[in-house]
Amino acid sequence: MLLASVLLLGIAWGPGPVLSATPASLVSAGQHVIWSYAGLTPPQPLYTAISVGQVAGIIFFKDNIGANISSVVTSLKNANANSPTQLPLLMMTDQEGGQVRRLSGEPTQSAKQMCAAGTVSSGGTGAGQNLKSVGMNVNLAPVLDIYRVAGDFEDQYERSFSNDPTKVSSCGASFITAQQAVGVAASAKHFPGLGAAARGVNTDTQPVTLNLSASEIRSVDELPYVAAIAAGVKLVMPSWAIYPSIDASRPSGLSSTFIYTELRGRLGFEGVTISDAIEAAGLSAYGSDANRAIIASEAGMDLILAAARDANQGAGIVTALANALDNGTVDKKAFDRATARIASLRKSMSF
Ligand SMILES: *[C@@H]1O[C@H](CO)[C@@H](O)[C@H](O)[C@H]1NC(C)=O
Ligand SMILES: *[C@@H]1O[C@H](CO)[C@@H](O)[C@H](O)[C@H]1NC(C)=O
Ligand SMILES: *[C@@H]1O[C@H](CO)[C@@H](O)[C@H](O)[C@H]1NC(C)=O
């Protein structure tokens, strides 16, 4: 039954190496991929992929959110009811506050306003309750980037709590604690920090290099992660920028130096790493989305965000990761440890 569904998916999604991946590897790979789709109606292949255990979760964008979003989320969860993994789906969106919100409602203030006004905790609670009210259980927030100059990349939409690292630390930790108390996991982003990016410098649209010294990265940009990890943040999203003082060859999210040595080793993070959008133009040097997903997984990225609003992207990445597992490109032991971290996060979800 499982194999039959997998073969059907292979045909529906066109030519490719799907037939060569083993069903077990497809399920294992699927545990690492967050899918997306366009519009108000999830496509049938997404429901099918969920039912055969090839989907870890879904990211929802503004164009997915209509009046019936709760029913849509429920229908996707229902498709998961008999999947081989028997783990809740990770249902996520970007609900930072102010201008960066996919759902209407809380937090209506920007991160900068909340931190200045002392309303971060109620904003975090509000974000959690808002997501929970539509069945979502992961928020891709808060931003822990420390902006440098008024109106720069993070400050232009007031996504950064402050330009003061100690304020970002305390506000970030308050947001995480309040939101996670509602049962909605928080994602601290974008490690080790995009706060030094100038206005118009965006990893979604171009490769970005931030020439900060290692000591500035560690004493300024990474400081809020110490508080966030102490507060029990469940996910961390590395950035797609290159920081040559620590790793000159790879963007943070494709860098084992950042993920293993810096985030897990130096800072002691034991939760789940989640990528930023894998199709980001900042990664243009790293081939197809599927190839990038393999490189990210090799570097220690647990979850791959297939955010192109196209179920074919998620399917292609699952297939490529399964093949990379089968042919040994991706180390099975490290991959399985990541699978276990993701499973433990999913198991902890109460809705
Ligand atoms: C949600 O609304 C869309 C657009 O009207 C519709 O196509 C879809 O079937 C609805 N889904 C659910 C689960 O209610
Ligand atoms: C960063 O440093 C490199 C090498 O010195 C240089 O080529 C690049 O222009 C610098 N980038 C910025 C944004 O300053
Ligand atoms: C293993 O599979 C991946 C994904 O299809 C592919 O990119 C890679 O080239 C393959 N490696 C070998 C050695 O076959």
Task: Give the helices and strands as they follow along the chain.
Answer: HHEHEHEEEHHEHEHHEHEHEHH
Helix content: 40-55%
CATH class (first level) name: Alpha Beta
CATH architecture: Alpha-Beta Barrel
The count of strands amounts to 10
- From the spread of the alpha carbons, the general shape counts as globular
Number of helices: 13
> Which structural class is indicated by helix and strand composition?
alpha/beta
Protein model, in words:
By secondary structure, this protein is α/β, with parallel strands linked by helices. It has one domain: Glycoside hydrolase, family 3, N-terminal domain (TIM Barrel). An eight-stranded parallel beta barrel has the order 1-2-3-6-7-8-9-10, surrounded by six helices. A two-stranded antiparallel ribbon has the order 4-5. Strand 9, helix 11 and strand 10 form a beta-alpha-beta unit. The radius of gyration is 19 Å and the shape is globular. Bound molecules: 2-acetamido-2-deoxy-beta-D-glucopyranose (NAG) (3 copies). One 2-acetamido-2-deoxy-beta-D-glucopyranose (NAG) binds next to helix 12. The site of one 2-acetamido-2-deoxy-beta-D-glucopyranose has 7 residues, from helix 4.
